[in-house]
Amino acid sequence: MFQEFSAKTSPEFGAARLAALRAELAKAGLDAFIVPRADAWQGEYVTEADARLAWLTGFTGSAGFCIVTRDRAGVFVDGRYRVQVRAEVDLEAFTPIDWPETLPGPWLAQCLPAGSKVGFDPWLHTRREIEAIATAAKDIALVASPNLVDAIWTDRPAPAAAAVRLHPIEFAGESAAAKRARIGDEIARLGAVCAVLTLPDSISWLLNIRGADVPRNPVVQSFAILHDTGRVALFADPAKFGAEVLAALGPDVELLPIGTFAEALEDLAGPVLVDPASAPLAVWQALDAAGVATLAGADPCILPKARKNPAEIAGMEAAHLRDGVAMTEFLCWLDREGPKGGLTEIDVVTALEGFRAETNALLDISFDTICGAGEHGAIVHYRVNEKTNRPVRPGEILLVDSGAQYIDGTTDITRTVAIGPVPEAAKEPFTRVLRGMIAIERARWPKGLAGRDLDALARAPLWEAGLDYDHGTGHGVGAALCVHEGPARISRISEIPLEPGMILSDEPGYYREGAFGIRLENLVLIGEAPELPGADPQRRMLAFRNLTWVPFDTRLISVELLSRAERDWLNAYHAEVLARIGPHLRPATQDWLNTACAPV
C-alpha cells in the first residue's frame, strides 16, 4: 500500500507546542512569527521534515498558514478546509481564520501595536508574499529570522533521500539537452544571463529526471541555475544520483551539494532571472547582498512544461486508458459490495489502490485518496485515517477523488456514487454539478482567454439554485509529474491564457456540511476547436478534448434537469467509455458497464 492511515497529528499536542513557540518568541525579541505550510520549494506537498504547520497546529491541509503572537494564534485556511481545520486543531489554543477574506497584513495591523516585530523564515516565503504583508501591516516590521519552529521540534524527521531516476525519452518527447538549449535561448531573449530555478517540477522536467523526495510527486528536491548557454548548476544531494543518471545528465550539468546553493548565488554575474511568485525571499536577499542585478520574471520552464508535446500527450492518454480500466473495475466492485453494508472508508481506499496495482504499472498514487462517505464528503480534501474512519452505509453517497502516477502519465479523477438506495436530496445538486462539468467540456472560446473567463460556466447551473463551491473549477496537471501544476487553471483568479497542449482538471462540486459532498472530475486537454460552418476564419478558437473515460452514476441524475445537448453529450461520452474501456474488462465488469453506460 502507498497510502497509510495512521493519524499524523493530534489536537492534544497543540497547546504545549504553542507555549514552547511563544517562549522562543520572547527569547528572539519578536512579537509574532509566521508559520507557513510551504517549504523552501514553495510546493503544495511537503515532506514530513518540512511539515511545520501540521506539527505545530495539527492542521494537515495542503494550503494555509499560522501566525502566532504573544496572545493569539490564527490558522488561516481557505474554503476547502474550513470544516477540516475545526476537527484537527485545538480550538482553545488556535483560532481558524477565513482566508483570503482576511489577509495576514491587515490581521497583524489589527492585532499588534505599531513598532511590533514579526519574524519569518526567508526560505519559506516568496518576496511577493512578504512585500504584500509588509505593505498592509503598515507600521509593523517584518524581520527575517531563524526558524523558531525548528528550534523546538526536537524529533524532526530527517530530510528525504530517495534515489533519482531517468524519465525515458519516449515519454519526455524531448531530450534534456534540447530543453536546456531552448530555455537558455529564452533566458537570453529576456535580457538575463542565467535563471534561478527553485521549483522541483521545473528542474525535474528540464533535466528529464524523476525522484521520490516529496510524497506522491515524482520530483527531485533541488535548486538549479540555468545559464543562457544551456549549462546548468544543479544543487541537490549527490548521494541520490547513480552513475547512469550522472552519465545521462552529461558534462553540461554540474552536480553540487545543496548546501552550497546560497553561496553560489553570490558569485553570479547578472542580470539573473528570478521568479517573484516562487523563489524564496532568501534567494533575492543573497543576490541583493552580493550586488548581483536581478530581473523579475516567471520561471522560464513553467509555460513550456505546461504545453505538453505529442509524446507527453500520448503517454497521458495511455495512462488514462489504463487507469480508466482500474477505476471501472473498482466502481463495479463498489456497486456490488457497498450495499451489503460491510465496508469502511479505509476498505474503499485500499480496494481502489489494489485495482490500480493490478495494472502492474503503478508507481505511486498521485495524492492520498479522498474518500468521504456521508458527511465526510462535505470536507473537500478529507483524508481518512484510523481515527476518522467510518462505515460506508447504504443509502448514502460516497465521494472518491483519486489518482495514480505511472511512468507515462499522471491521473486525477473524481466520481460521486450512490451506495445502494439513492438519496433523493442529492439528485438535484448532483445533476447541477454534472451540468457544470459538461459546460466546461463543451466550451469553445477565442484564443487568449484565461481560466477566469471559463470558471462561471461550471458554476452557472449551481447559481441558478443558489448553490456554489469554495474551490477552483480546475487545476493544471503534469505529465508524469505533479498532479497540481501551474501556471494555468480554471479559477476566478487565473489570468494565464489557456493554450493548446495544456491539461487541466474539470471538477465542479457542491458540499452540504453535515450531510454529503458531490464532486465530479475529468482531465481535459486543450486543442484547436473543430471548424464550424459560417465561423469567422480569422478568429482562432480553442476547445477541450477529454482524457478520462469512466462512467458517471446515472442513478443520481434528475434527467429532467438536463437539456437535450447535455443528454446528448452524456450519452456520447458513455458510448465512448464502452468502446474504449469495455474490451479490457473482466466479463462481469463488462456486463456492469453496459448497464452503467445505458443512454439516459
From TrEMBL:
Keywords: Aminopeptidase, Hydrolase, Metal-binding, Protease. Residues 315-527 form the Peptidase M24 domain. InterPro entries: Creatin/AminoP/Spt16_N, Creatinase/aminopeptidase-like, Creatinase_N, Pept_M24, Pept_M24B, Peptidase_M24_C, X-Pro_aminopeptidase_P. Residues 541-600 form the Peptidase M24 C-terminal domain. The keyword Hydrolase applies. Gene3D superfamilies: Creatinase/methionine aminopeptidase superfamily, Creatinase/prolidase N-terminal domain. The keyword RNA-binding does not apply. Residues 17-151 form the Creatinase N-terminal domain. One of its GO terms (molecular function) is metalloaminopeptidase activity. One of its GO terms (cellular component) is cytoplasm. Belongs to the peptidase M24B family. This is Aminopeptidase P family protein. It comes from Paenirhodobacter populi.
